[in-house]
Design goal:
heterotrimer; A mainly alpha; B mainly alpha; C alpha/beta; A: mainly alpha; MetI-like fold; B: mainly alpha; 12 helices; 70% helix; elongated
Chain lengths: 325, 333, 348
C-alpha cells in the first residue's frame, strides 16, 4: 500500500509539472496583455513599458516560463494589472471559494450515495422514479439557470415571507462583519447556503445516478448471491457486500468530476456575487491580466491533481486489487 | 417426424452393441471426464435473424421516455426553423410594444427594446441546436480517431495520447473555455468559432471511451483473423473494430450534444458566447435575469426551453444506451 | 426411519417476463436422504439450477414458486426472509458455478470464511479465524495459515472454488447444494475440487445435491441420479440404473453423445438433433417429442408420467422414467436409437 501511495504521489508531481507548461503556453497564446493598456488613452506610455518589462514580454517563451515557474515555487506569483500582489490576492479569494466548494462537495457526496442506494433498493417503485426523474431534470439544468432560479423563486420569496433575510443572494458575507470566527459563523452560513445548495444539487444529480446504477449492477452480482447463501442478514449483505463494492466506481467518478465542480464554482460565484477565485479569474481574463490568469489556472490544477491523488488513495483502500497495479 | 415403423428397429438386440454399452458405462465411471451436452436457449423462440442494427433500433423505439425525448427534440428543431421563416416577426424585428406580457400577438411577450420574445426564443433554440450538433460531430470525429489510434497501436503512442488527454482534463473545462472564448469574441463574431472551441475540449471523453473499447477488441480473434487474411491496419480499424464499438460512441455523441448546449449557454450567459444581435438561450437568460420577478416572461421562457431542450437530448441518450446494452434483470436458468 | 434431509414435492416455478410467463420448473419431486449424493443432470434451461435456488429461497421476488420443499420435515416455502437466513449457510449450504465472481474481491478469504462462521455460531473472532485456517487445510489449500489472509485474486480458480467449499462446510450443514461446481474449471483442476467436495461430505456428513451437465462427474460421485428436461424430471434412479438401463430416449441421447475411449475413432459423435423447447406457453405432449426418433402419435398428445421401470439395483420402484415406451427403451438396443444411418453403413 505504501509503495502504491508513493507511486501515485510521484506521478502527481510529474503531472503538475507538465500542467504548468500547458497552462503557461495557453495563457501566453491567449492574447496581448498590453492591448487593454494600449487602448486606454489615460494610461501613460511609461506604465505600459513598465508592465511590458515586468512581464518580460520581450524574452523568449521558455525563459518567461522559467521566470514565472521559479517565482511560483517561492510563492511569488507576480503582480496584477493594478499592481496588487497576485499571490496574496489569490489566497484570500481561494479561502472564499474553498468555503463553498468543500461544503458543497462533501454534502453532495453523502446525499448522492444515500439517494443512489435508496433508489436502487426501491428500484421500479415510486421512490425510485421520483428520485431518478428529479436527478435527470437537475442534470439538464445548467448551473447558472439553477442558481438564478433559486435566487429569484426560492430565496427572495422566502425572505419576504419571513420578513428577514436568511438566504443572502449577494456576496459571501455581510460587508461590515467582524468579531470572532464563531460569531461570524451564522453570517457565513446564511451567505453560503444558497450557492452551496446550487452546487450541491448539480453535483449530486450525476453522482446519484451513477451510484444507483452501480448499486443495481452489484445487487445482481454473484458474490452477493453467495453472501445471501451464507445466511447473512439482509442488512449485512446490503452494507458489507453491495454498498461496499458499489462505492468503488463512484469514487472514480467523483474524482474525475472535481474539475467540473471547480468550474461550476466560477458560475456560482458570479451569480451570487462572491469575491471568489472564479470571479477574480473571469475579471483577469477580460482584462488580459496575465499573472492573474496564470495564478488561477495553477491553483486550480494543483487542487484537481491533489483531489485525484486522494481519490486514488481511497480507491486503493477500497479495492485491494488496485494496490498491486 | 420418424414413422412408427422405426419402433421395431430398435428392439432388435445386437450382442456387440449391448456389450459395448456396458463396457462404456464402466469406462465412464472410471474416467470421470465429461462432455458438454448440446444445449440451447431457455427460449427456443424461432424467428428470422435480425441484423444488430434492427435489434437495437427495435429496442430503442420501445422505450417510452426515449420516444418522448425524440419527439420533443424533433418538434423543437422543426418549430425553430419554421418560426424562423414563417413567423410574422423575426428575432431582430423591433415592434412598438415594449415590455409587454404574453398576448396573442406576442405569445411570449416582448423585451425592453421591443423584440418579440417568441421569435427570440425560437431563434435561440435554433442557434443552440446548430452549435451543439456541430460540436458533437467535431468532437466525435476527433475523439474516435484519437481513441482508435491509441487503443489499436498501444505502446508509446497510447501513453503519449492518453497523458495528453489527462493533462487537458486537469483544468476545468469552463475555465479554459472562458480563456479561449474571450480571445475569440474579440476577434470574430462567428458561432462557428465558438463551436470549434467547445469541440476541441469535448473530444476527450469519447477518446477515452473508444480507446478502452479498442484495447479489449484488439485481443479478439476476429482481429487476428483479419490480419491473417492480409488486411491493412487501417482496414481492420475501420471495417472491423469500429462497427463493434459504435454503440457507446453514439451514446456518448448524444451526451456531447447536450453538454455542448450547457457549455455554450453558460458562455453566452457570461457574455463570452454568442454575441448580440445573434441570439442564444443562454444569452436570453442573461438578459432576462434581472426581470425574473417583474417581467417574468423574459426569464421563464428561455429557461424552460433550455431545460426542456437539454432534457430531451438526455432522454434520447439514455434510451440509446439502454437499446445498445439492456440492463434488465436476467433470469439464470 | 429418519426424516429425509430434503423432500421436494410438486415443485413449480414460473417467471413472468415481458414476453410471457416462463415455466422454468413444471412439477419436480424427489427426496434426498441424509448423507446421500443425488446428481441432477440436464442441459441449460432444464430447470435444475432454479430448483436449487428455490430451495434456498434465492430466486427473485417476481418468481412464482409453488409446491413443497421440506428440509428435515420443515416446510421452507413461505418462510419469511428472516427465518430463511437461519437455514441458509448452516442447515443448507450452496456453492455456485463461477469461483472468479462468487467471492467478494475486496475482502480476504479468511474474512469471508469467518463471516460465514460468525453468522451462525457464537465464538470469538480469533477462534473463528482458527477454524477458517482448519477448513482451508481440510479442502487442501497449501499453507493455510498464510493463505487465509490472501485476497481472492491471489488464489487460482481451483483454489477459489475450494475456498467456497470451505465456506460451505463451515457450519456443518445437513445439505450441500452444488450448482455446477466444476463447470468453469479446467479438467485437471476439476478432480481436485471434487476431492475437496468429498472431504466436505465426509467431514460434515451432509447430503449433497450435485447439479451439473457433466455425466462423468455424476458417475464418479453420485448414489442416485435425476435427469431433468424442460423443467421436469424425466428419469430417476440409482446411478447404475440410469447408466446401465437408461429408460428414456433423452437419457440415451446423453449417454450416446459421449465420446468413448473404447470407440475405434471412426464414429461420428452422436448428437441429439434439435434444441430444447421454449419454456413459455402451455404444453401438450412430451417436450422431448420433437427431437425423439421414437416419437409417435401418443407422444405428441400426452405428456408421459414417471413410470416404474426395472432396476439394476434391488430397490423396488427406485427407477422411474417418463416415457410412453420406457420399458421398451430400457430393454432395447441403445446404440441404434440415435444412429445416423449413413454412419452406420460406413462403420459396418
Amino acid at each position: 500500500m505504501f509503495a502504491y501511495v508513493i507511486r501515485r504521489l510521484l506521478i502527481s508531481v510529474v503531472v503538475l509539472f507538465f500542467a504548468t507548461i500547458f497552462v503557461f503556453v495557453l495563457v501566453a497564446k491567449s492574447g496581448n496583455p498590453l492591448a487593454l493598456l494600449n487602448a486606454n488613452p489615460h494610461i501613460p506610455h511609461a506604465t505600459v513599458v513598465a508592465r511590458e518589462n515586468l512581464l518580460h514580454l520581450n524574452d523568449p517563451l521558455w525563459q518567461r516560463y522559467w521566470i514565472w515557474l521559479s517565482g511560483a515555487i517561492h510563492g511569488n506569483l507576480g503582480t496584477s494589472i493594478n499592481g496588487q500582489d497576485v499571490a496574496s490576492e489569490a489566497m484570500s479569494h481561494l479561502f472564499v471559494t474553498l468555503r463553498m466548494v468543500i461544503v458543497a462537495t462533501v454534502i453532495a457526496i453523502f446525499v448522492a450515495i444515500f439517494m443512489g442506494v435508496l433508489a436502487a433498493v426501491r428500484q421500479g417503485k415510486v421512490t425510485d422514479h421520483a428520485i431518478t426523474v428529479t436527478n435527470f431534470v437537475l442534470l439538464a439544468t445548467p448551473i447558472f439557470v439553477l442558481g438564478l432560479a433559486l435566487k429569484e423563486f426560492v430565496a427572495i420569496p422566502i425572505n419576504q415571507h419571513l420578513n428577514t433575510t436568511i438566504f443572502y443572494t449577494d456576496g459571501e458575507q455581510s460587508p461590515t462583519l467582524s468579531g470572532s470566527f464563531l460569531s461570524r459563523l451564522p453570517d457565513y452560513a446564511e451567505h453560503t447556503a444558497l450557492p452551496a445548495i446550487t452546487l450541491i444539487l448539480i453535483s449530486y444529480a450525476s453522482w446519484a445516478i451513477y451510484q444507483r446504477s452501480s448499486m443495481i449492477e452489484t445487487l445482481d452480482a454473484d458474490h452477493v448471491r453467495l453472501a445471501r447463501a451464507k445466511g447473512l442478514s439482509q442488512r449485512r449483505v446490503l452494507f458489507r457486500h453491495v454498498l461496499r463494492n458499489a462505492l468503488i466506481p463512484v469514487t472514480t467518478v467523483v474524482a474525475l468530476d472535481f474539475a467540473a465542480v471547480l468550474g461550476g464554482a466560477i458560475i456560482t460565484e458570479i451569480v451570487f456575487g462572491w469575491q471568489g477565485l472564479g470571479q477574480w479569474y473571469l475579471n483577469g481574463v477580460l482584462t488580459l491580466d496575465t499573472n492573474v490568469m496564470l495564478a488561477y489556472l495553477l491553483i486550480t490544477a494543483t487542487f484537481v491533481i491533489l483531489f485525484n491523488l486522494l481519490a486514488d488513495i481511497l480507491y486503493g483502500v477500497l479495492d485491494p486489487r488496485i494496490r498491486y497495479a | 417426424m420418424p414413422e412408427p415403423a422405426a419402433q421395431e428397429n430398435f428392439v432388435i438386440q445386437t450382442p456387440e452393441r449391448v456389450a459395448t454399452v456396458e463396457a462404456g458405462a464402466h469406462t465412464l465411471a472410471g474416467v470421470g471426464a465429461g462432455v458438454e451436452l448440446s444445449g440451447g436457449d431457455v427460449h427456443g423462440l424461432s424467428g428470422e435473424a435480425k441484423s444488430q442494427f434492427q435489434i437495437v433500433l427495435n429496442r430503442f423505439f420501445h422505450q417510452r421516455l426515449a420516444m418522448i425525448g425524440v419527439a420533443t427534440f424533433v418538434l423543437l428543431g422543426i418549430a425553430s426553423i419554421v418560426v424562423g421563416h414563417f413567423w410574422q416577426y423575426s428575432y431582430t424585428t423591433i415592434t412598438n410594444n415594449l415590455n409587454d406580457p404574453p398576448s396573442w400577438t406576442n405569445p411570449f411577450g416582448t423585451n425592453s427594446i421591443g423584440n418579440d420574445m417568441f421569435a427570440q426564443v425560437m431563434a435561440g433554440v435554433e442557434k443552440d441546436i446548430e452549435i451543439a450538433l456541430t460540436v458533437a460531430a467535431m468532437a466525435t470525429l476527433i475523439g474516435v480517431t484519437v481513441g482508435a489510434i491509441a487503443g489499436f497501436y498501444r505502446g508509446w503512442v497510447d501513453t503519449l495520447l492518453m497523458r495528453f488527454v489527462d493533462l487537458v482534463l486537469v483544468l476545468p473545462v469552463l475555465a479554459v473555455l472562458i480563456l479561449l472564448s474571450a480571445k475569440l469574441s474579440k476577434e470574430s463574431n462567428n458561432w462557428l468559432g465558438l463551436a470549434f472551441i467547445i469541440g476541441i475540449l469535448s473530444w476527450t471523453y469519447v477518446a477515452r471511451l473508444v480507446r478502452a473499447d479498442f484495447l479489449s477488441l484488439r485481443e479478439r480473434d476476429f482481429v487476428e483473423a483479419s490480419r491473417a487474411l492480409g488486411a491493412t491496419n487501417r482496414r481492420i480499424i475501420v471495417k472491423h473494430m469500429l462497427p463493434n464499438a459504435v454503440g457507446p460512441i453514439i451514446v456518448n455523441a448524444t451526451l456531447t450534444v447536450a453538454l455542448s448546449i450547457v457549455f455554450e449557454s453558460t458562455l453566452s450567459f457570461l457574455g463570452l458566447g454568442v454575441q448580440p444581435p445573434a441570439v442564444s438561450l443562454g444569452l436570453l437568460v442573461d438578459q432576462g435575469q434581472d426581470s425574473a420577478t417583474t417581467e417574468w416572461w423574459l426569464f421563464v421562457f428561455p429557461v424552460a426551453f433550455l431545460i426542456v431542450l437539454i432534457l430531451s437530448i438526455f432522454l434520447i441518450g439514455d434510451g440509446l444506451r439502454e437499446a445498445f446494452d439492456p440492463k434488465k434483470s436476467r433470469v439464470r436458468a | 426411519m429418519a426424516e429425509p434431509a430434503l423432500q421436494i414435492d410438486r415443485l413449480e416455478v414460473d417467471f413472468p417476463t415481458k414476453d410471457g410467463v416462463v415455466h422454468a420448473v413444471r412439477g419436480v419431486d424427489f427426496t434426498l436422504e441424509p448423507g446421500e449424493v443425488l446428481g441432477i443432470v440436464g442441459e441449460s434451461g432444464s430447470g435444475k439450477s432454479v430448483t436449487a435456488l428455490a430451495t434456498m429461497g434465492l430466486l427473485p421476488k417476481s418468481a412464482d414458486v409453488r409446491g413443497s420443499i421440506r428440509f428435515q420435515g420443515r416446510e421452507l416455502l413461505g418462510l419469511k426472509e428472516k427465518q430463511m437466513t437461519k437455514v441458509r449457510g448452516t442447515g443448507i449450504a450452496m456453492i455456485f458455478q463461477d469461483p472468479m465472481t462468487s467471492l467478494n474481491p475486496v475482502y480476504t478469504i479468511g474474512w469471508q470464511i469467518t463471516e460465514a462462521i460468525l453468522a451462525h455460531q457464537d465464538m470469538s473472532k480469533d477462534a473463528a479465524k482458527a477454524r477458517a485456517v482448519e477448513l482451508l487445510a481440510k479442502v487442501g489449500i497449501p499453507n493455510p495459515s498464510e493463505r487465509v489472509d490472501n485476497y481472492p485474486h491471489e488464489f487460482s480458480g481451483g483454489m477459489r472454488q475450494r475456498a467456497v467449499i470451505a465456506i460451505g462446510m463451515a457450519n456443518d450443514p445437513e445439505v450441500i447444494l452444488a450448482d455446477e461446481p466444476t463447470t468453469a474449471l479446467d479438467v485437471t483442476v476439476q478432480a481436485q475440487v471434487l476431492d475437496s467436495l468429498r472431504t466436505a461430505l465426509s467431514e460434515t456428513g451432509a447430503a449433497l445435491l450435485l447439479i451439473t451437465h457433466d455425466l462423468g462427474v455424476i458417475a464418479g460421485i453420485s448414489d442416485r441420479v435425476l435427469v431433468m428436461y424442460a423443467g421436469r424430471a424425466v428419469e430417476t434412479g440409482t446411478a447404475e440404473d440410469v447408466f446401465y438401463k437408461p429408460s428414456m430416449p433423452y437419457t440415451l441421447g446423453l449417454l450416446g453423445s459421449l465420446p468413448r475411449l473404447d470407440s475405434d475413432g471412426n464414429e461420428r459423435l452422436r448428437q441429439i438433433p434439435g434444441s430444447p423447447p421454449s419454456m413459455m406457453g402451455d404444453r401438450t405432449g412430451c417436450p422431448f417429442a420433437p427431437r425423439c426418433p421414437l416419437a409417435t402419435e401418443i407422444c405428441i398428445t400426452t405428456e408421459p408420467d414417471l413410470v416404474v421401470v426395472p432396476s439394476v439395483t434391488s430397490a423396488v420402484g427406485g427407477h422411474r422414467a417418463a416415457c410412453h415406451f420406457a420399458v421398451e427403451v430400457g430393454r432395447g438396443d441403445h446404440g441404434k436409437v440415435f444412429s445416423d444411418g449413413v454412419v452406420d453403413d460406413v462403420v459396418a
